[in-house]
Design goal:
196 residues, alpha+beta, Peroxidase, domain 1, 2 domains, 8 helices, 4 strands, 13% strand, elongated
Length: 196
Amino acid sequence: MSFDDRLTAVARVYADALLGLAERRGEADELGEELRGLAAEVERDAALRAFLLTPLVDAEARATSLERIFRGRASDLLVDGLQVLNRKGRIGLVPAIAAVYARAHNELRGRIEVEVTSAVPLDEGQRGAVRTAVAHRSGREALLQEIVDPALLGGMVVKIGDQKADASVASRLHALGDALLDRASREIQRGGQVEN
């Protein structure tokens, strides 16, 4: 899921505050897992999403519900964070906060998320090669998210943040097709004279 720049900037304020508190308490990993799980549930469950986002639910009633639903089942840090978000009218930011928190937490730990798309599942040798290349280039440990897309035919596409390296067979065939079309176009413009 992607978020616009303004939403990400606001989410960063809350994520940084939560990460700072969690680090001091030694709960950063656990809070990250809880946020990830809650964000996934918000994405999956339309009723929960509506409960968090609708202006028809009074903030005080929502605070009571948050206590009843989460207190004792989630960490106090998460529940207290949700209450702050509710009071500030920012409870709908949970998915964005979870995403920003995960990136900041990974950066703090020297890790980076890497999306690898391939035509078939990677084997251990390929995973190792990608991890080594990412570590060499970024100086960080690669956390691989693997996606299988048979349309690639072969090879892989590696995405790190907003940078993308496409070494797929499909992209090579597309480039070859573009080159052939370009050459045919030039030949037509020259009146059918073929270069030797």
